Structure formats: structure tokens, C-alpha cells
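Morning, I've got a small favour to ask if you have a moment. Here's the protein in full, and shout if anything looks odd to you:
***
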Amino acid sequence: MLSTVYSAGLHGIDSFIVSVEVDGIEAGDNSVFDLVGLPDAAVKEAKERIKSACYNGGFYFPDMNFTVNLAPANRKKEGSAFDVPMTVGILRCGKFLRGDVDLSRKCFTGELSLSGKLRGVRGVLCMCAAAKDNGFEEIYVPAENAAEAAAVAGIRVFGVEDIKELIDHLNGVRPIAPTVADEFCAECDELSGLDFCDVYGQAAAKRAMEIAAAGGHNILLIGPPGTGKSMLAKRLPTILPPLTFDEAIVSTKIHSVSGVLPDGRSLITARPFRSPHHTMSAVSLVGGGINPMPGEISLAHNGVLFLDEFPEFPKAVTDSLRQPLEDGKVTITRASGRVTYPCSFMLVAAMNPCRCGFFGHPTRKCTCSHLDVKRYISKISGPMLDRIDIQVELPSLPFEEISGKKGSGESSAEIRKRVIAAREFMRARLAAAGVDTSRFFCNAQLDAAATRRTCIATDDALETMKMAFERLGLSGRGYDRILRLARTVADLDGADMIESGHIAEAISLRSLDRKYWS
């Protein structure tokens, strides 16, 4: 008897439909189980899990010779998500599943335990989206993945606890209620308790963070220990605009494929904030492995990547960020294939001015030699520095500001209102200029053509830019980045054109490389 059950495989954050063809032929005591279709080790081991799950789930394993083919046979199948569809096909061959049950519009995924329980698998959101796009009406997933899958509209999602429950539902004995999706609400639940008003003083740095958030610009914070660099970085997501539903879907796909989506969560509702340790490898940051998986830059997609103690990261690691920062995506090539992951994020880097941390401090003596300072600073390469739009220095604070006697400053909610208003002003400006607003969510993402069309400056502003270009020896990339940064400053002011003051502020936010790296 031939039975065909449908499932889905993963390729990056995309998914493809897999036809699980199960052919069962009557046999004696020595039954055979052959599995073909480029399965990996986890898929091959399914035969042992399936046998025990059938016995412990209330069924006996049919005394048949089984040949299972995972089509298309030229694409590698990975993971344990094919346990459930293979089991459904086998039980149908054994006539535990009614012959009139239509499986042509049903998709199945999930790992089996030896007891017959369904365990969660990674990438369920991607699989559910692929099933819906390919015309499937129902998808059956482990109960712990049901909330995640239900985020996809247009397909009914059934969360299953064990194989017995699944077969009873398909036979009409004990129906399972479809999982209802939670209403999407973009909030910063993970960031509750963090607020910009907690950071005393550092008005210039707060202004720089506001500009960075409004335009999606990368920022480098330099200052002695204890000046608030990490505090500011951790609070940056609280002033960013809320995630849109489309952004939440893509971010959730990446977290789901990586297997780091919190249990019971349907979608990522807050902008991701990733803060990896400086001992990490380039593969951990960018992504990779035998079967290429997302790295920290992809997990930070639509959010913030914070690299504290920036010079302590190996130079090869920091330089691996150069291309992803430009392209907003990373392509990982291995012998097993090529995978592209999105990685459009804001980079926030923090560093001390020297190894001891007190170079230029007004009261503490620096113990580093001039050569030590240069060696420490030079760990950040020129091309990497050229991709960071904003460089801001955080000075040591006097007692009056640290003690809070001068007030706590604005809250994150107040700053966030201005950031959202600047982004809305940007979208209206791009639409008026005929630029596709679906391609660009902030000024930092503008390409060269869009920059020329939308970053229009006055004659005085152009003259200021000319002087800066000649005196600072800017590169072509540096010129465009200053222009886009000035455009963000103008958006915060609600100005239609970039004025001389906007250019001047943008240049001042990008001048620390002349102090430390010249």
C-alpha cells in the first residue's frame, strides 16, 4: 500500500514542501525499513523512534517492509521534524488510519519521543508559511509550537500532544480544536524597567543616541569605565519605533530556525537586543557551521547588536561585519549549499580610550604608553570605522550630575515620540520623491540613488560639506553617510532641506576618528 503525507523542510529561513511517500508491503517477522531521499543522521534515526512511539502510543508497528522516500530526492532533509509525517504514513499503511481520510491538504511536522509524545522542532513558523503558500488548508504541529505557527493567517493550525491524539483526530474520534493566534501587540516587555531617565548627565551622548535611533545609524561610544556606555546601549531599543507585523514575522523566523524562540511565544514583539561576549568567533557572529545557521548579526535583525569592549574582539571578527553592514544580509557558502540570512541591524559599539581606560581622564592618570594607546586603538580598522556613522565621547561626570542634583533628564517615552515622528516625516518625504518606501525603513538604509534624490541640501550646507570633505579627507562612503546623517538631523527638526547647521552637527558626530585614529 502506498501512502503520501506532506511535510516541510528548511533552507535558511525559507521552507519547501516535502512529500513523504510510504510504501508498505506485507512481510513476515523480519520486516525492513528503508529510508531514502537524502536524509541526514537525525532523519535516519527516526525509524527507531517511530517503532517505540507506535508501541507506547497504543499501536503496534505493522509487520511490513517499508520504503520511505522524502521527495524531492535531490534536496537534503535535516532534523527530526519528519518523524510525525512518516508515522502517519506508516499507520495508514497498517490501516490504523481510515482510508477515506483526505491527507492531500494537510501538512505534518514534529519530533516523536519514545512514549509517543510530540516534541517541538525549530523553524515551525517557516514551515507553516510555506504550507500556506502552497495551498495547504491545515498543518499539524507539536503543541509547544502551536502558538508560533498560528501567527500565519490563512491556514488552520492544530497543536498535537501525542500520536494517539493525532490519529484519533484524523479518524474523527476525538477532534482537536484549532489554535487561535494571539493578537499582535508590539511592546518592549523584555525591556521593562529600562529607561533613559536612569542615565544622569551625558546630554551629548543622549542626543547622539536619539539621532541614531531616528535614522538607524551605527554608533560608537568611547569613554572611561563607568560613564554610562552600556547603560545607554541597553536602553536604545526603548526609543526605537515598535516592530511592525512584517518585521516581527521575519525576526521570529530567524529565532525559530535558530531554536532560540522562547517557549509559548507566537512572535517576537520587541526589537531584538543581542550583546555577545568578546570571546566569540567569526562563525558565531556572522553565522555558519556544517549546516549554516544564523549568527548574532541575523538574530539582531530589525534590532540592536551591542558589542561592548569593542577592541577586545578579534580583528577578524569585527572586520567580518563590514559587508553585512553594507548589504543588510549575509550569504554563507558551504559544501552542503548556500544560505542567505537577513541582518539589517543597528550596531552599537562601546570601548575605552585605552587599555587601562583613563587616557585623557581629567583626574585619573593613564598608565598606558603612547604606543600602547595607539596599539589598542588600531584594533579597530579604518574600513570598519568608516561604516560607523556616529562617534561620540562620554566624559567622566562631576558629582552634581552623578548624584542627580541636576535632574534625571527625559524619559524613553518622550524621546521615542520624536524618533517616531522623524521616521514618519522620512517616509512622507520618500513617498513625495517617488522612492519605494517598502525598501527603506530609515535613512541609514538609503542606497546611493535614493540618497541623491532625497537628501537635498541648501547652497550653504553644500559649502559646509565641501569644506569638511577637503579638510577631513572623506571617502565617497563617508560623504554619503554624513549626508544621510544630516538628513536624519533635519528630519528631527522637521526641515524639508538639509541646512548648514544639520551638516555641522553631522560632522561633529563623526569626528572622533581624527582625535583617536589620526
